[in-house]
Amino acid sequence: MGGSLSTNKAAEAPGQAAQPYAASAPSTSQSSCPVPEQYRNSAVYNVYNQRIDGPEASTSAPSRQGILNRLAGYDTIDPSNQMPREPNQQPCPGQKKLISTQRLASSIPKGGTDGTWLYPSPQMFYNALKRKSKGDDVTEDDMNAVVHAHNSMNEMTWQHVLHWEQLHSEECPQPTLLRFRGRPDDLSPLARLAGWFGGELPFDRHDWYVDRCGKEVRYVIDFYFHDDKAGTPDAFSLRVRPAVDTPEAVLDRTKMAIYATFAKYIEDNDRFPGWKGELPQEAPTNKQALSQHSTGKTVGYGEMGREEWRGEVIEVSWRPRAFLFKNFLSDEECDHLINLARPSMTKSTVVDNVTGKSVDSTVRTSTGTFFGRGQDEVIDRIEKRIAHVSHVPAENGEGMQVLHYVDGQKYEPHHDFFHDKYNADPSNGGQRVATMLMYLTTVDEGGETVFPQAETRVSGPEWSDCAQQGLAVKTRRGDALLFFSLHPDGETDPASLHGSCATIRGEKWSATKWMHVAAFGLTAEQQKAKWGDCIDADARCSEWAGMGECEKNPGYMNSSCRLSCKRCAPKSPSMA
Fold first, then answer.
1. pLDDT band at residue 10 using 50, 70 and 90 as cut-offs
2. CB of 520 within 8 A of CB of 398?
3. Where is the Fe2OG dioxygenase domain (predicted)?
4. Residue 18 — pLDDT band, cuts 50, 70, 90?
């Protein structure tokens, strides 16, 4: 378990270097090995990704294939993890079924690059298990679940590291993972001490080396498997802490122990509501109570003076917290958002983890545009409806974003919460707490929203290969998916990792509403501006626009500085 990651822009990732072993050649019988002939290879396979020579490699003269492999870089070792740079996606000798070669991007930033680490594909993981002689009780059909558990453990580990790194957030807002080393045969001092007193021993250990803005810090991670909880989400656990290499690490451990002692006093859900996403509310009126207890698939889109909604809500998941609101938008509202967005669509960007600015990326290939908050009556009505069902005030929301996917366009798995201190600044609403994703069209094939780190996963021919990598939701016109990026205690939720699978057939239009923990952008008075009232919400908008902030920070600027960013046209005197 632990970390077999690789970077999406550079080398392969955490894991030990391992020596190759001589595997027997697969049978050429189609009945015993249904793998297509062009994929069969009697070569020896190294861990995760190394392709090397067959048995003839032990002779004094290198084979032609061996020379070609070296020239191709298959034997080039990445010093960050002692793994070959070139991935091996070929089936293992003796393999009976083809296994997915899809690799998911992690949320873990790779030190020295602007990319993140990539996870091994199920095929790469299967090759590794076979090479290590650890795959006797694992079949090709098991690999998706195995890789899912592996990836979840890595995401969980990084969140624990970030929790510790919060102690140094002022000096380094965005730590990165440089490299790591597997040490399964070396018990950590803490694990050894626990073993002396009859405690449970870890099944694996890793040392992760983190770049704290120029300072290298080592973390020790012990991975545990609990037999009595096998088959449940609590079967795996881990312990993460900075290695006691420096006085600073000792001080960090002391601070965290103090914080943990006081943290237990704020876990009372009766006094601190929100563990299921709810916030304190006023007592409902008789009409509200009747609406809340109504049965049947009744849908309401609001009434004069108050925006309400009632309808069918499906519990998608508790880890992450995700809920599907059926028929949340009417057909007319879906058409209105699409028609309003179509003339101003541009290539979508992503938020840079270090600078907090918007940048182009191959991770996101859609086109999109932003609306101002309350831009017109329809948008204003929808935003009030979102606030009603999410219990997050409307003023905490960013301007709505409309996205368009077609012809294989996608958005790789990512988190909506911020990794940088600039966007998460409390002065501008703080961290993102939740997302409402509204589907404006029904996609014929593909286009699902997938949660790769969720506890459950979908399967079946009706789902794309991408969707079957986790828990997924179909894009159905009018439906809306609400999910939370933060735990009720304010900690980020790694399981909220999500992506948009490639749109294979048809087109996907969606509208996204990100919500913060506090008021974002415009004041309550400024939110009253309707479509046609082309204004700037801040006197500094013109200056910011001149500095390029409309492109660098569209989430805020397109809502608050619509005039300076030329997102609208001011009324002429004849129109006033």
1. very low
2. yes
3. 396-517
4. very low
